[in-house]
Amino acid sequence: MSGLLATIAPLEIDIHPGEHPEWHVLGMTLNADTIWCTLVAGAIVVGLGLILRRQLVKKTAGNVPTKLQILWETIVKEVQTQVEDNLGRVHPYVVPLAVALFFFILIANWLELIPSELNKDVHALPAPTADTNLTYAMAVLVIVSVWVYGIRTKGVKGYFRHFIEPYPVLLPLNILEELVKPITLALRLFGNIFAGGIMLGLIAGLVAWKIGPVPVGGVLSFLADILWKLFDMFIGLIQAFIFSLLTVLYFGMAAAGHGDEHGHDDEQDEKAPELAA
């Protein structure tokens, strides 16, 4: 056993997590790979939307819906159903936002699974969600939209009243909770995707591993790479779902209690045609 261990070559893996090629513009430092990968992911989502839009036009002529259209309509309908069943009716803006965020984050998470190594240190398509600059930007977009929605739904006094509920003494904790929401939303996504990128770097470093003169690292790296990428796809899917789900929940919480005062009237309005018949 000691002889076998002596033949195992020490393995040194050199990775640099968190480092990005940079652009310097007007005294600002920009992470170049995050920018171009964000544009790539966004272009894919927009492109799929345009293709779907063209197919929707064809459907009006009596043609059979395509698989892409059926998939999209199924997802949107399911999200709409789950939102209305659990939160009631929310603003029409919420479901499209959640669906768009889901597909954008999913594609952004999966970009790093595409082999695109320019050299051993540069990956042309890293996941842009492994950079906090993007995850914080999306979290700020969501939370600001939630605040605007809550104020427009309840009014300024009605919305800010929830900070002193159920007891005024909880005001500091309620404010802290509101400020922490975008931070946890951003870091949850960043942490999982960033860790996945590190694992891919470690697995790639196994290629040079040898036991004596036998190069076993290539086989181990190949097998581990396939298994981890399958697992990483699942993690990317789950994180996109969680981000979108929390977005919907935050909108639901912002409007919570608004329909209570009018719920009885709404039910009466819905029953009125039946009674008249």
Brief description of this entry?
The protein has helices spanning 2-7, 32-59, 67-87, 94-110, 132-160, 171-204, 217-254, 263-276, and strands at 22-25, 28-31. It has 277 residues and is mostly helical.
Search tags:
disordered N terminus; mainly alpha; 277 residues; 68% helix; disordered C terminus; two-stranded antiparallel ribbon
Q: Radius of gyration, Cα only, in angstroms?
A: 25 Å
Overall pLDDT level: 77
Count of the domains: 1
Gap between N and C termini, in Å?
Answer: 89 Å
Number of helical segments? 8
Structural class: mainly alpha
Task: Describe the model.
The chain has 277 residues and is mostly helical. The chain has one domain. It has helices at 2-7, 32-59, 67-87, 94-110, 132-160, 171-204, 217-254, 263-276, and strands at residues 22-25, 28-31. A two-stranded antiparallel ribbon has the order 1-2. A hairpin with a 2-residue loop joins strand 1 (22-25) and strand 2. Helix 5 (132-160) packs parallel to helix 7. Residues 1-6 and 260-277 have low confidence and may be disordered.
